[in-house]
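FAQ
Q: What does a multi-component entry look like?
A: The components come first, one per line:
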Amino acid sequence: MTPTLTPGAASTAALVLDLAGTFAFALNGALTAVRAARLDIVGVVTLGMITALGGGILRDILLGALPPATFSDWRYLLVATAGGLIAFALSRQLDRITLSITVFDALGLGLFAVTGAARALDLGAGAGQAVLLGGITAVGGGTLRDVLVRRIPSVLSSELYAVPALLGALVVVVADRLGSTAVAWSLAGAALAFTVRMLGVGFRINAPTPPGWRGAPDD
Amino acid sequence: MTPTLTPGAASTAALVLDLAGTFAFALNGALTAVRAARLDIVGVVTLGMITALGGGILRDILLGALPPATFSDWRYLLVATAGGLIAFALSRQLDRITLSITVFDALGLGLFAVTGAARALDLGAGAGQAVLLGGITAVGGGTLRDVLVRRIPSVLSSELYAVPALLGALVVVVADRLGSTAVAWSLAGAALAFTVRMLGVGFRINAPTPPGWRGAPDD
Amino acid sequence: MTPTLTPGAASTAALVLDLAGTFAFALNGALTAVRAARLDIVGVVTLGMITALGGGILRDILLGALPPATFSDWRYLLVATAGGLIAFALSRQLDRITLSITVFDALGLGLFAVTGAARALDLGAGAGQAVLLGGITAVGGGTLRDVLVRRIPSVLSSELYAVPALLGALVVVVADRLGSTAVAWSLAGAALAFTVRMLGVGFRINAPTPPGWRGAPDD
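Then the predicted structure of the entire assembly, as tokens:
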């Protein structure tokens, strides 16, 4: 196990990135609640919190790092709640609410891919597992969100959702294996994930929602 | 960590409340299976058990208290199974099955809010976390139930579902911080949660089920 | 705790059975993604992996055995991914894709029922819990799969899904209590579970999909 959580700039940067990803996903989850399901303020903030904290909690469970940091640390809870409330308050003023939902999701995806992979490495995971766990941290919250509002999850229906997350995680893991834990690599990985995700959204018509499964004749 | 699980009347009362909440949620989950999804006896008992045990298991995972007490302790498994079987046997005789579903859900909500918060405190959680964990214990089983029968979960769609649970948990946590762990406070918190929930149900037309999300044009 | 994982043929056989179950569920999950939801290759492999690994991960969480073996051991990840890719490649050549889905699911169900129960016993679980955990390992992956593609889970809607799994687990646990951990009992239990499941499929018209719950008038 190579502990890289040393006091100082590096871990502060990691925390800031993780809180930024939490905030982005809270905005995304809350706006999804407003847009897709017409929920009230409690529902909006709740879905925002689940989307914001779900990925990190799932990663910590898989790593056996309980209680999960994203649940125990008041800063994550505060940022997640704040994101939900802010999104609720501003939702009516957003002209392009669908675009906002997509952009915040992509931001969260990129940030969590790198912070999730870094945390996995810090807790002793191997390279392959850290890439996978970075991907899981990135897509986990959004998957919970999609299930709760009864959508087929983006991670299944959209080709460039898991892939950009894994790419971002890969950048961090490769850099770590080459001996560098500089924050610049995390930023690069997050930017790569975000860019690939948004390119996928931009160049494709959104992946068609699969027809609801209703006991098709031969199934 | 302030251990308050002392042998004697206090912990027996806590266990009774927790088993009562388990039983209420088992009845609720089983009746939901009968009413909403026309499931057979295995499905009815299974959904009853998931609803009855889900919240406590989720709370214990988040607290890192594994294996979860509600899964290891045979009394919980017995009560959950019994509730499912009883509900299945009596379901045809219930004139007001929908009201029963709602009442049992509210009973379970109130009881689990206080027992969940108390258990979180016993395991060393801070005040804010204990309130949140009491809320999660209360709404967790019902949320799993709703997802499995493909509903938007009550915790998102109904304004007075999470709030009464958090209020009940708050009573227990405030009492604890003021130095009292008397069972009377747990009963008061559970009653408050139950009452607020039922008032919400009574004064509002049930929150409209959000229209199913089917790839709306601009999403 | 009675450790029975002794080096040698017994544990190799257990590993082979567990990997075989993983492979069967990966094929099943991937084919479900192709058939039910028309997903792309990433979605197909992802759903295959979730179906293949989900039951074991859930069991290990409930046992407190973290990180879960099925997530940490690269052989499980490899087999799960391979199953997904193979299913994707061959899906167009399968005439009877629905039958294949059902058969692979039944194979995974039977194998995981026995390996899950055996692992629970190895980690010190009591007899009743090991039967329950074998059942959970067997139905867990399929339940996650069903929720993600928005179906009512087989474990709720199909009478002979949980029951065959519990029967298979019971064979292993009874044999263990009578002093035998011979692989023959695992094979017998898996065969029993598979047979009962397929008989249930064969003799019944598939359990009718419950009508979608859409805010029925009196609910």
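Q: Is there any commentary attached?
A: Sometimes. For this entry: Chain B has a mean pLDDT of 86.
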